[in-house]
Amino acid sequence: LPGIDIAKSRGARYRLGPELEICGYGCSDHYYESDTLLHSFQVLAKLLESPATQDIICDVGMPVLHRNVRYNCRVIFLNKKILLIRPKISLANAGNYRELRWFTPWNKARHVEEYFLPRIIQEVTGQETVPFGDAVLATKDTCLGAEICEELWAPNSPHIEMGLDGVEIFTNSSGSHHVLRKAHIRVDLVNSATAKNGGIYILANQKGCDGDRLYYDGCAMISMNGETVAQGSQFSLDDVEVLVATLDLEDVRSYRAEISSRNLAASKVNPYPRVKVNFALSCSDDVAVPTCMPIQWRHHSPEEEISLGPACWLWDYLRRSKQAGFLLPLSGGIDSSATACIVYSMCHQVCLAVKNGNADVLADVRKIVNDETYVPEDPREFCKRIFTTCYMASENSSQDTCNRAKLLAEQIGSYHINLNIDAAVKAVVGIFSMVTGRTPHFSVYGGSNRENLALQNVQARIRMVLAYLFAQLTLWTRGMPGGLLVLGSANVDESLRGYLTKYDCSSADINPIGGISKTDLKNFIQYCIENFQLTALRSIMSAPPTAELEPLVDGHVAQTDEADMGMTYAELSIYGKLRKIAKAGPYSMFCKLISMWKEICTPREVASKVKHFFRMYSVNRHKMTTLTPSYHAENYSPDDNRFDLRPFLYNTTWSWQFRCIDQQVNPL
Fold first, then answer.
1. 88 annotated active-site
2. CATH number for the domain whose boundaries are 302-549
3. What residue stretches are annotated with the CN hydrolase domain (predicted)?
């Protein structure tokens, strides 16, 4: 309702909202429940009754059960009368989307049936039945047609045929989530739709965390004849954002008039059923009203996207979980430092929103810090209240990483704790020695690989236990109420390779960087040095990545991540994209890489690298089943929950696939 009020106050005559906005897009298996349908209709009844929805065509999204089949629908109404229920035709069912699990596509093109309204709606509208199906609206002055999210991305988008049939305004309600470098595709699709066919296209998208790993990134827009005329924000803490434009329908008609190929196709088009609406979007005396001019779309850089998207997701998660802040094990490396910078960016966004008068954000801040008079003005001061960082040293930690963590904590303002885990590690290993009579040793002291790995894992897992203990009780020791959410900081490449200890500090409540590659995180760190003046990050950037779980040599780190993994982060990123995005198994990946790497590797070296990656990936795939929920940012994410569904018990020899590779290597 606030959005409808704002739209009306700005002179709008048609209001479009995002996909399934009444119940929320992320209901998942709750769509099966009759309660979800009932409560959606109850909300619809309130909207129909509200004075705010009078004299403006309102277009809202909700699930509807028609003849015992559940559809993802738009419900379009005006002055307490439902004009049309338009079911979705092309359902999103790839990647993170599972719409075919809950909904059925409307497969009857240009066909309309009678929908019998439930009594709670009949009592408001006085209607017994309303049109349900693939139709368009004919007002006194124009014709409008609806698309729903995926239909814009489909090769046979409805706007093509609708435009040929005289529809001048296309509307799209979306539930489209953020992926790095994706926003321009959405913009290009919308502008392309109106460039070829003429017309006005308006797109509304969900924005924020809807209770899972995805962040819906707004980017509401209005386009006419191939050019953007209004752009909404991609990331913000505002719960409601309204985009309004005044456009001249005659510009659409004159644009179409000279496209002869369009007009020839239009003369043969199969017409859509039209629902007549006794209402006009224009006024008779609007000749002097100024119209909106085209603008240049401003895209965020990938570094800005990392700074803003996960930060907004963290804020939504924090306020909705009703916790008092975050705790992060800060190691002094790139990954945990990037996570700390994202929290600091969140603090910036919160202070900016409050400064700009966002009362909802201020109310949420006061609940989180438990102070009804508090006003966040300085990001560093706010960070001190809601963010605790913890450096967990061991005898294998260097003074360098300790200093880097401390300096970064000082610069972002977090409440920083230094502790040493050696006593706990010795106690755990001591229990093992007491029970078995054997004492494991690191390989540098003559131990086997099994001993070496087990001793590293003990350190890593104790850090996880301590992280949760301090998250629960740190605020108690400071005389403050509440607990803290534990943040993880394993990047997408490490998860893919399995270069992490199961149930170490990669195990947390949420992970803002779990879908982001090491390469992008390095660029993000450089962005933070320049944008937030965090000079502590310079030494973090220049240091080689290390787990610091093996003994130091002359006080310095001897262990490095890339040496441990047997591959570089740059290589891992390539493997990840080929495996997931290019759908390459071992043999296909080898075939692609002998061409990509022909200047730097022999075919035999490529074969060796590919085999090593797939061995390590398959040996460690079981770790993905317990992976901390991460912000989804990359299309090559190995997230086992929904996005990347694979076995977690593999034949790790890949005997047939590797044999095929060998057969190609020999002649090459």
1. yes
2. 3.40.50.620
3. 1-249
